Amino acid sequence: MVKYPALIMKKTFHLFTSTLSQLGVLLLFLSPSLTAQSNPTTPWLTDFQAAKKAAAKEKKDIALLFTASDWLDLAKTFDEKILSQKEFLDQASSRYILVKLDFPKNKARIKQQTATQNQLLMQAYRVRGLPTLVLTDDLGRPYAITGYHDGGLTAWLEEFNLLRQTREKRDRLIAEAKQVEGVERAQLLAQALPDLPGNIAARFYRNIMNEAIKLDPANKSGRIEYYKSLIADVQYADQMQKLALEGNDKKMLVLSKHYLKEGYLNAASRQSVLFNIFGIYEKQNNTDLMGKTLQAIINTAPDSSQGKQAATLQDKLKAKASK
Q1: Domain-by-domain residue ranges, the chain?
Q2: Is the distance from CB of 82 to CB of 2 less than 8 angstroms?
Q3: How would CATH label the architecture of 20-164?
Q4: Cβ–Cβ contacts within 10 Å for residue 176, how many?
Q5: Most buried pick, 75, 234, 252, 290, via CB within 10 A?
Q6: pTM of the model
């Protein structure tokens, strides 16, 4: 079983992400100065576009390491016990182009263009904690996400190497789906999609989801309503991102409330939308509605990470009001 990384959580506006196609356009303007940063003495690149080109040329996948080199103990432990070990580097380098995306406190450690690229990639892959290792194909489509956990190098490598099977299964089932039609094809496509957190799958495999939806209107595969909810989540996030860039808080609030009412949301997604609403009220300094929104987040799932985060913010809000 894959263990997900320990998370250093970020606050508010949880659903703002960039699609990889949008990201690619932005990163093209950054690549020339980024390439110069790659250190020839290390297998880790820092330039995502250069990594994609190398992956395509060498017929390898890409391993994206989101880390914090100078302030996070867990990231340092991950590097010392796993990532810098010769056994890992030998195995990983034979199958992956390795890319290190650093988020240091000391901003002088990386160039501004690199910092911008890293932030865009963090948004695109919905990375909510550090350290996180995202495995993608040469096009940048993710198929597995992992991180550091105790158990030793050998055990970690065994699980890491198993993740490659997810990619192989995806490609095999997509190829099989091309040989059949109708619901049978939809079922194979559904089996092919990697199990990724949040709406990541809808961002990178939306064309496959749309095909499955079209082929299986009666939902015989049992995945169609789920795919529709993921796609709706992406549409909501993209609209929110556009409105945020416009500074249109009023429309953001209307959109979020409508999505809460009409969308098919699990507890985590509902909490994320509520956090977006909280962020708007926070900008307006509306402490009453901030408190009510935080309570709604807590009521949705009090023991979840977002529920606990809301409880902490609620305590701070109450303490500030009592002064």
Answers
A1: 20-164, 178-228, 247-322
A2: no
A3: 3-Layer(aba) Sandwich (3.40)
A4: 15
A5: 75
A6: 0.80
